[in-house]
Amino acid sequence: MSKFYIQTTEALKQLRADKDGVVSFEYIIVAACIVAVVIAVFKTDTSISSALVGGITKISTAMSGL
């Protein structure tokens, strides 16, 4: 457990020191914002949500038949 903790803290230190790490952190923030918008759209619009659930159900049914 302590080995994992040490590896994680070292990776975070390296991410802070690395200039490219800032760019990847910005991508994470943008991705989180996109996910929040998508969740908000799916919660308010039931037609999109029901279409998505229907599609997943059809795929699951087709996959279980294999």
From TrEMBL:
<feature type="transmembrane region" description="Helical">
    <location>
        <begin position="21"/>
        <end position="42"/>
    </location>
</feature>
<protein>
    <recommendedName>
        <fullName>Flp family type IVb pilin</fullName>
    </recommendedName>
</protein>
<keyword id="KW-0812">Transmembrane</keyword>
<keyword id="KW-0472">Membrane</keyword>
<keyword id="KW-1133">Transmembrane helix</keyword>
